[in-house]
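Researcher: Please predict.
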Amino acid sequence: LPSPNCVNFVVCQLFALATAFWFRLYLHPSKTSPFIRHVVATLLGFYLALFCFGWYALHFLVQSGLTYGIMIFAGVEHMHKYCFVLALGYLTFCQITRVYVFDYGMYSADFTGPMMVITQKITSLAFELHDGKCTHISSDVKMPTLLEYLSYNCNFMSILAGPTCSFNDYIAFIHGTGYHLKHLESNGKENGKFKQSDPSPNREVVRKLCTCAATLLIYLALFRACPVAYVNDDHFVATSPFYVQVLYLYLSMVATRPKYYFVWTLADAINNAAGFGFNGFDKDGLPRWDAVLNLRILKIESATSFKLFLDNWNIQTALWLKRVCYERCPYNPTAATFLLSAVWHGVYPGYYLTFVTGIVMTLAARAVRHNIRPHFQETETHRLVYDVITWAGTQVAICYTVVPFVLLAVGPSLKFYMTWYWCLHILGLVLVLVLPVKPRHLRQKEAQQQGSPATTDNNYNQKQKTT
């Protein structure tokens, strides 16, 4: 049976879903001031946090308060560095105390889970303020009020499961200007009909709730039948052929993923139900509700490359890592990004084993794509063969990489890799050493030289669009 903490989490999220509909209909920006919307969103969020985590929820206010003080007193020039160090350091301190002081292996009702999202929001805002990107149409830096800051960090829509979002997008949602801005981005001009009614998220919310129901049923049906820990069972390892072990590894991870599908899709539905997440219109004129989308299930399960898998898994976290680390790190950005991801996730040794392995797998996958893929693009049959092989390789590599993430401890994780004779580590290192891949700055330079006219036109169009 599910633990009481898991039940509390689901009940609170369902309450947040019902509240989100009420928030959109009865506290609509046309009826209520931004001040009231901020206050209600913040108080409801903190109530849910208290219900789930008790007085540990005070850490959310402490982390937010300390970093807000830095934003006020440190100045724009250095605030992003100080906020990054303090937010991540405070998160790590709480993770250490929770794991090694309170209960090692306590996975449910983890009060540091919401702090991970708050850390993303704090650092994202600090970097936006530093970069001068806190308004839609100008580069002036605008410091949020304390109420806006707390509402952004602790609102009821994202306090329990995220996802993170842009501060600008959240403020536009509170003020009711988000629909208008996204509509202009999609159509390039104002439309009288758009002013009369906001696009309804109801259909998208129902679709996502159906996805939640399906993934929850799949998880409840499979996770006990295919536990990941069984990959280390001595009898299973001794009596099963290697291909059976590979197949079981894949099935056990397929049985594990629906848990994340359920949590993130439900969180997305809550945001949409409140009217947040509108992202313009598609080519058919239908509203898109994917501005805070956190995963694409079909693309994950059909991914034919390591990058494609990661690009569609925990999307908002990947964007955060890209903004605050990958695009800013002058040397070895891939390794730095994986290291930051490990520190952000927590202090279990399995996390670090997973992300160190992820560095090798990412570099190996990049080398294969750059050197081997061009030879399979001549005919449709060749492309199909390449896609099938790379799909199988990607799925096995992902499963192999994330086993320590699930097992958490060093002993079981190393036992698994030794059972497999570290084969994918060795293969990955060989591919990285044998297959040449140009450094990122050289690839970017060549791309700019080859596509300079198109790049210029695109920059001009983007400038016109912003104007």
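Model: Residues 202-274 form one domain.
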